[in-house]
Design brief:
5-stranded antiparallel β-sheet; 37% helix
Length: 174
Amino acid sequence: MSYFEYSMSVEKANIIRISRGNSLPITFRIVFTLILFLIYIALTGYLPKALVIALMILLAPILPLIWTLQDMIEINMNKKFIHEYIWVLGNKWGAPTSFKHIKYIFINATKMRQAMTSWGGRVRYSQYSEYVAYLKLNSGKKFLLTRSKNYDSLAQELRTISVKLDTTLKDTTQ
């Protein structure tokens, strides 16, 4: 292994990327896709086929953009910056923030309550705990890392992240 390969592997090992989920809700993505198809169907009855195909070629690239929007966070320990960004088809939109030292990672438990109303007027209440993980810097600034309903899988994932970042993991859920 050459020096260049070794330095690249070490450099990549100190970069952690975490996906915090899709930026757009699934209902919006589905409704927008259906609207686009309905526009296509409606236009085929009124416009020449060549014009409809040209319009759909112009509108079609919007679908992958909407379906691939990801909310990401990247922690680069080599260059000491945290980058919160929106990832779209390989492009990053967001500004990195530099830091000196990571104080710790902590997990909070949040009680959630959801009310669901049916067409018949019935209301069903659902209560659950959601676990939210944050990264705290010495400057006091906090960054959302991830969230989950499953405590065990979240804690296991955060243990490996805290080892890679060489910081402590504080559990405030107990």
